[in-house]
Amino acid sequence: MNARGALGRYGEDLAARLLTEAGMAVLARNWRCRAGEIDIVAGEGDALVICEVKTRRAGAFEHPMAAVTPVKAERLRRLAGIWLDQHGGPPSGGVRIDLVGVILPRRGAPVAEHVRGVA
């Protein structure tokens, strides 16, 4: 795994822990299909949560939250539909797309921010 892949994996590990601590159940990580990849699929009560994780080093070009463009949001909605088709359809609580942004400072603990319903 290269440095970028290791950075992404670290951010996803932090995000999974954050979501679990918030009471969600992680159902899948790095779920792939022909159309792309979902970083984390989680359940929260009777809702399904599709979670995109973006990890950046402090001082990087853009804040992780800026990474979900309209094109990216549409791709996440399409991937959510494929997941639902393959896993029995939408749950009674509906589907939500969240983002976890992780910033790694040069020193000190990483900062993770969870935003619900980004797309």
UniProtKB/TrEMBL annotation:
SUPFAM superfamilies per the UniProt record, alphabetical: Restriction endonuclease-like (SSF52980)
Taxonomic superkingdom: Bacteria
A Pfam match: UPF0102
An MF annotation (GO) of this entry: nucleic acid binding
PANTHER family, alphabetized: UPF0102 PROTEIN YRAN
Similarity field: Belongs to the UPF0102 family.
Record protein name field: UPF0102 protein F0344_08720
Species per Swiss-Prot/TrEMBL record: Streptomyces finlayi
